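Hey Z.,

So I finally got round to the threonylcarbamoyladenylate thing we talked about over coffee. Here's the setup:
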Amino acid sequence: MNTSYLHFNERDLARAGELIRSGKLVAFPTETVYGLGANALDSDAVKSIYAAKGRPADNPLIVHVFDKAQIFDIAAELGDYAKRVIDCVMPAPITIVLPKNSLISDVVTAGLPSVAVRMPLSQQARSFLRAAAVPVAAPSANLSGRPSPTCWQRVREDMDGRISAVLCGEACTVGIESTVLDLTQPVPLVLRPGAVSAEYLSELLGVNVEVLSDPTSKVNSPGVRYKHYAPKVPMVLDLDDDVDKLCAFYDAKLAEGFRPVLWVHQPHRFGNRRAVEMGADDLQAAANLFETMRLLEQDYDFIIASFCRRKGGAYDGPAGRGVLDRLMRACGHNVI
Ligand code: TXA
Ligand code: MG
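And the result:
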C-alpha cells in the first residue's frame, strides 16, 4: 500500500475525511500521541486497525469525537460524574469509559458492554475529526508493543506502507496517552494514569477517585495486561535518584561490555558518564518520554532510567504518576 502524507490545509483535510468515510486508516496528531483512526461505525475499517498495528483483538479502542453532542450518540447513559467531566474537563487529554449503546460494535469495544470516549484538546485533532464527520476509533499509531509516536516521522517509521494516509501535524505536547477514567462503576477508577490526575478529578467530583495500581490485574482495562512501550534494548529503573547507586550500576554495565546510558534528572551530576536529561519537571519528562526512548535505543544497548517522585521534588507533579507507569512497563518492572 502506498501511504499518502497529508498536511493541514483544506484540501488535504477533506481528503483525510473522505478516506475515513470510505473505510480507510488515517493517522493524525492529538495533544497526547498520534492516533491511528478509522470510522468507528464501520466494523471492517476498525478490524483493519488491529491488523495494521498487530494488536490483540481483545484490547478495545477509544472512540474520538469533536463535539460533546456526539457522546450522546455513543454512550447509553451518562451519570452525574460523566456529565461533570464532560462539562468541566473535556476537551482534554482524558478518556471516559461509559456504558455503550448499540451504535458501537463489539469490534471497537472488544465485546465489552462499555465504550471509551475521548474529545481531544488539540485543534489539529479536532479539525481532522470534524472533517471525518463520524466518530473515529483510534489507538496510538505505533506497532503493537512499541513506544507511542509523538511526531509524524515516528508514525512513518512504524506505519509506512500499512495505512492509507498520515496527517503530518505538530509534535504532541503532552507526550503520554490520555488518562482513562472508568465511570461505569459507583466509584470512578483511573485505569491508566495520564496528564489529568486522579487528585484533580477527586477534587472536581468530590469523591476519592481510585487508581488501578496493579498492572497485572484484569479489572476492566484489557490494555493494561499487555506489555507496552518496550524499548529494543534492556532497561532498568531507579526510583530514588540515588547518584552513587546509578553510577555504580553504570560502571558495572560498562565493565560487562555494554554501551550504557543514564536517563536521569540533571545529567551533569554523573561526571563523564553518558547521561541524558529525563526532563526538568514531570510535564517535560512526559513530553519527551517516548521520543527519547526511541532515540536512546538507537544509540545505546542498555538504558538505566531514574524517576523519583519524592514529595516536593521535580517529578511530584500531575503527570508524574503517568510517566512512572510508562517507565515501569518499559523496563518490565525491573527496578534497581
Ligand atoms: O491519548 C490517547 O488516549 C491516545 C490518542 C490517540 O487519543 N490513544 C490511545 O489508545 O492511547 P490506545 O488504544 O493505545 O489505548 C486505549 C486504552 C487501552 O488501555 C484500552 O484497554 C483502554 O483504553 N480501553 C478502551 N476501551 C475500553 C473500555 N471499554 N473499557 C476499559 N478500557 C478501555
Ligand atoms: Mg497504545
